[in-house]
TrEMBL record:
<feature type="domain" description="ABC transporter">
    <location>
        <begin position="4"/>
        <end position="235"/>
    </location>
</feature>
<dbReference type="InterPro" id="IPR003439">
    <property type="entry name" value="ABC_transporter-like_ATP-bd"/>
</dbReference>
<feature type="compositionally biased region" description="Acidic residues">
    <location>
        <begin position="256"/>
        <end position="265"/>
    </location>
</feature>
<dbReference type="GO" id="GO:0005524">
    <property type="term" value="F:ATP binding"/>
</dbReference>
<dbReference type="Pfam" id="PF00005">
    <property type="entry name" value="ABC_tran"/>
</dbReference>
<keyword id="KW-0813">Transport</keyword>
<keyword id="KW-0547">Nucleotide-binding</keyword>
<dbReference type="InterPro" id="IPR003593">
    <property type="entry name" value="AAA+_ATPase"/>
</dbReference>
<dbReference type="InterPro" id="IPR027417">
    <property type="entry name" value="P-loop_NTPase"/>
</dbReference>
<dbReference type="InterPro" id="IPR050153">
    <property type="entry name" value="Metal_Ion_Import_ABC"/>
</dbReference>
<keyword id="KW-0067">ATP-binding</keyword>
<feature type="region of interest" description="Disordered">
    <location>
        <begin position="255"/>
        <end position="280"/>
    </location>
</feature>
<protein>
    <submittedName>
        <fullName>Iron/manganese ABC transporter ATP-binding protein YfeB</fullName>
    </submittedName>
</protein>
Length: 280
């Protein structure tokens, strides 16, 4: 059974058509990367998978059921979680929130809840920060806390919106290891968004967005020059270069606040990283 089957879904954010009619499947027990330019609909698709946003047309099934019936199997970690400034909330409080739905009678944490909270803090390497207030943390540390909250939920499906963006190498590695452990050790499925072609190329399955799903399948099937040019704009890719026998495509730099065609001419960084990946 597929993890997700979407047939001709159309997604609006308010009055704005965010994702035009799209069909795709996502395999179960794998890592799926959703990639595409700014504003291409990645977060919107994640929200539909997590049951936060309903399609205005078409249908989306998760684990063979209407998504509203399996919401309790899904952990959704948002791109940025905003707590009002001055909220006296600690790292442990935030991670513990991941267990609120599973708590026992009278809202008491049971041994398994405490174990899940401690496991999540350990795997995300934030145990030594547990008594710190959230607003005392760096952006990268905070992001690890939010991912830990998702891990603590222990659900079969972990949906992560840009978990790696803006993180240093160490934090990226920690999150990468946790994502692989979720799939390989716990048999869970991970769906994440990224701006990094290397990350997408390393996933089991890729969905390429540009206001709709442009392509979905294995990285080899999806991350082709033709598809990437369609999503990121014709001429946006520089001629492939041969680097030590590997064909490498460089993406031009994209402004972070712009839309898909808002390219800078400079062939340099993309999504804060090298912007180079092995072309298929
Ligand atoms: N709350 C909202 N109300 C109206 N339109 C929205 C809202 N949120 C997003 N949009 C629009 O929906 C479209 C898809 O946005 P979405 O956040 O899914 O893109 P994205 O690919 O995740 O972008 P990014 O890479 O910048 O995070 C964009 O055109 C965006 O402007």
């Amino acid at each position: 059974m597929s993890l997700v089957e979407a047939q001709n879904i159309v997604l609006y954010r308010g009055a704005h058509l965010a994702v035009g009619a799209s069909s795709f499947t996502i395999p179960r027990g794998k890592i799926t990367a959703v990639i595409g330019p700014n504003g291409s609909g990645k977060t919107t698709v994640l929200q539909a998978i997590a049951g936060i946003l309903s399609p205005s047309a078409g249908q989306i099934m998760v684990l063979g059921e209407p998504v509203k019936d399996v919401k309790h199997d899904i952990s959704f970690v948002m791109q940025s979680v905003v707590f009002p400034t001055g909220t006296p909330i600690t790292v442990k409080d935030v991670v513990s929130m991941g267990r609120y739905a599973q708590r026992g009678w009278f809202g008491m944490f049971r041994a398994q809840d405490r174990a899940a909270i401690n496991y999540a803090m350990q795997t995300m390497n934030i145990t030594d920060l547990k008594s710190r207030h959230l607003e005392e943390l760096s952006g990268g540390q905070r992001q690890r806390v939010y991912v830990a909250q998702g891990i603590a939920q222990g659900h079969e499906i972990l949906v992560l919106d840009e978990p790696m963006t803006g993180l240093d190498l160490k934090s990226r590695r920690i999150i990468d290891e946790v994502i692989h452990a979720e799939v390989e050790e716990h048999g869970h499925s991970v769906v994440l968004t990224t701006h990094d072609l290397d990350e997408a190329a390393a996933a089991d399955h890729v969905i390429l967005m540009d206001g709709k799903v442009v392509a979905s399948g294995s990285p080899e099937e999806v991350l082709t020059r033709v598809n990437l040019e369609q999503a990121y704009g014709l001429g946006s890719l520089h001629e492939p270069a041969d680097v030590n026998g590997t064909t490498v495509v460089e993406l031009p730099e994209c402004t972070t606040d712009g839309d898909a065609d808002d390219w800078d001419e400079q062939p340099a960084a993309y999504g804060g990283r090298s912007g180079r990946y092995d072309a298929f």
